[in-house]
Amino acid sequence: MKKVLLFGATGMAGHVIYYYLRSTGKYDISNVVYRTPLTEDSIVVDVTNRDAVADVVHRVHPEIIINCVGILIKGSIEHPDNAILINAYFPHLLKSITTQLPWKYVIISISALSVIGGSIILFAVPDGPYRKQSRQLQFTAFLSGLHNTNFRSAATGYFGHMWELYSFWAFVPVMLTVNKNHTHNNLNIPFFSFLIIACGALACAASGLLSQRFGAKKIATIALFLSCLCCLLSPFFLLTTSAPLLLAFLFFWGLVVIADSPLFSTLVAQNVAEELRGTSLTIVNCIGFSITIISIQTIKILSDNIGDRYIYMILAAGPVIGLIALLSNNKKDVIK
Asked: What's the pTM value of the predicted model, to 2 decimals?
């Protein structure tokens, strides 16, 4: 029988998966829980404790890992940083611990979390008390919003931000690998990739707090400028022989590249009519994620011709366009 290690066995999906797999008689399944045991042999572990998770994985030595760990709505509201850490980045932590396991297990665990998250939103999250419902879906909402200068600059800033963000995240492991091959350092690439991406959770929380004092537009502009600077300075750091210097640079980039993301969403939402807010945000997000696909493929296609040292300067194009849009709009944003 194949050995299976199931994280989050008492969760919405976890207990169903556990009992189904056990009923088939084809798997030797071990289950991991946070507090309340599911069975007599449940393993109680805090998944934010990397050493404890690593000990379980190495002790069980599974052939298959299933991750059903997820923070629900109440916990996400009370502890947003912890929710981002566990819901979004824990699968990458698993990958860093289980480097001998195929990459597809990370995809499986992320997909499981996506299904859980979507199900929670669909079935467990009611409409808010201040929601103003539109009579029908209006595909022209985005176009009508473009007449608003604040909306237009915020959306353009978001598009420029998205050109850079996901390409940076996608290629962080590549950056570390290139440096490792060049300098022969001993960096744990999956682990540091996880940390560099995960540190963005702190940046989002910090930027939100700062925006309440200095304004969302100002903080978003500063973050976008700093991430643009990282793109342009990347050739000086990516092949450095100093691993601490490389990590410091990538950690700083990981902070500033995402800090403006929630602020752009806020600016877009605040500068459109209430009845068009949901549609406008949806269309802006769809365009933004479409841009990420183009950006990632552009970096991939051009990397052979430009080289690993200079290729990421291309990512500066998005922030530059976003900064022009933000700085050319002198109207005060509505966020205080």
From this structure: 0.67
